[in-house]
Amino acid sequence: MQAATIHHQPRLRHRLPPTTAAPSRRPTSIRMSLRDDGPSLAIVGVTGAVGQEFLSVLSDRDFPYSSIRMLASRRSAGRRFTFEEREYVIEELTPDSFDGVDVALFSAGGSVSRELGPVAAAKGAVVVDNSSAFRMVPGVPLVIPEVNPEAMDGVRIGKGAIVANPNCSTIICLMAATPLHRVAKVTRMVVDTYQAASGAGAAAMEELELQTREVLEGKKPTCKIFSQQYAFNLFSHNSALQSNGYNEEEMKLVNETRKIWSDNDIKVTPTCIRVPVMRAHAESIKLQFEKPLDENTAREILSNAAGLVVIDDRATNSFPTPLKVSNKDDIAVGRIRRDLSMDGDYGLSIFVCGDQIRKGAALNAVQIAEMLL
Ligand SMILES: NC(=O)c1ccc[n+]([C@@H]2O[C@H](COP(=O)([O-])OP(=O)(O)OC[C@H]3O[C@@H](n4cnc5c(N)ncnc54)[C@H](OP(=O)(O)O)[C@@H]3O)[C@@H](O)[C@H]2O)c1
């Protein structure tokens, strides 16, 4: 029941200096990933928070590749760095960037994806897109490999396609909720999120760090990424509010859950909050079931689910935290308890933490790419 609890500081990845090694936690002597028979890759947005994590995950998982094109904006073009003992030059992203590319991992924002995702797919690449540009487009698979791998049917290398990576909060939520849903059928979910700076990219992480220093030094905090003070504060998610009072991040949880679970009747009501945590999101999730499910059975199901780790030790008050999951692949689940506000075993409360740059973005995308191998 109790998982390893390693406390460590989140790894801060700032923008690449002119020559810097891309992060890698593997030994440096043997490189198995560069192989003639591997697919040719393109990483779009390689200098960003998710782009950097793509490199880390590809390396950690020995993803085979015959070549990688490192792509970013004109601002970064020409910068050099080393990845797996080879020097790469960052290229400016253009429509020609995808000539001969088999798999393109996109994380440069929605407008870049909208403009060049279809171009890459038309040139034969399988695009795995981290933005929200195509998630709700009918016919575009929206995939969490542990949850709905069947959505990838028919997608293969050599046949251009766009596959969408779900929103990070959706991935973290459904990784925990789906194993229970499969057994007891979830009819309603109340999801409250506590979202980290890293979810808003590398510049937001830098702003939180800067503001924290400024506030401690008695200075006025610099607000560029967020419109209000972030350090020592929390606020409603910064995405646009809609006419129904929910913001875009919340509606992603509602709509993406319906698509991924192929269930337009599932009721989801989220509240998304930005908290001054550097990396990894937390979510409090209340599940209502069609069939009864007691908490011990739920704990057993979650303990055996792929990609999950249960941290649920009431005796020591040890439960998931953002620090425990930072830079980790698994989503952590704890506070598993019967919902006292509901009769019988028809409601369950859980608390979930996940590294949203990793499983919420880069890892999930690389797992999708692995399904093509
Ligand atoms: N952060 C997360 O946890 C997370 C999770 C899920 C999905 N996503 C999505 O992933 C995408 C990137 O997020 P991020 O957090 O990695 O952002 P980020 O740290 O701000 O990085 C943005 C990246 O996009 C590149 N870029 C921006 N404009 C470009 C252009 N016109 N042409 C080519 N490249 C361009 C940037 O290159 P330069 O350095 O050259 O400017 C940089 O590499 C977004 O769509 C975001 O919604 C993020």
TrEMBL record:
Pfam families: Semialdhyde_dh (PF01118), Semialdhyde_dhC (PF02774). GO terms for molecular function: aspartate-semialdehyde dehydrogenase activity; NAD binding; NADP binding; protein dimerization activity. This is aspartate-semialdehyde dehydrogenase. One of its GO terms (biological process) is lysine biosynthetic process via diaminopimelate. Coiled coil: none annotated. The keyword Lipoprotein does not apply. It catalyses: L-aspartate 4-semialdehyde + phosphate + NADP(+) = 4-phospho-L-aspartate + NADPH + H(+). Residues 40-155 form the Semialdehyde dehydrogenase NAD-binding domain. InterPro entries: Asp_semialdehyde_DH (IPR012080), Asp_semialdehyde_DH_beta (IPR005986), NAD(P)-bd_dom_sf (IPR036291), Semialdehyde_DH_NAD-bd (IPR000534), Semialdhyde_DH_dimer_dom (IPR012280). Belongs to the aspartate-semialdehyde dehydrogenase family. Homodimer. NCBIfam families: asd_B (TIGR01296), PRK14874.1 (NF011456). PANTHER family: ASPARTATE-SEMIALDEHYDE DEHYDROGENASE, DEHYDROGENASE, PUTATIVE-RELATED. Keywords: Amino-acid biosynthesis, Diaminopimelate biosynthesis, Lysine biosynthesis, Methionine biosynthesis, NADP, Oxidoreductase, Threonine biosynthesis. Residues 1-32 are annotated as: Disordered.
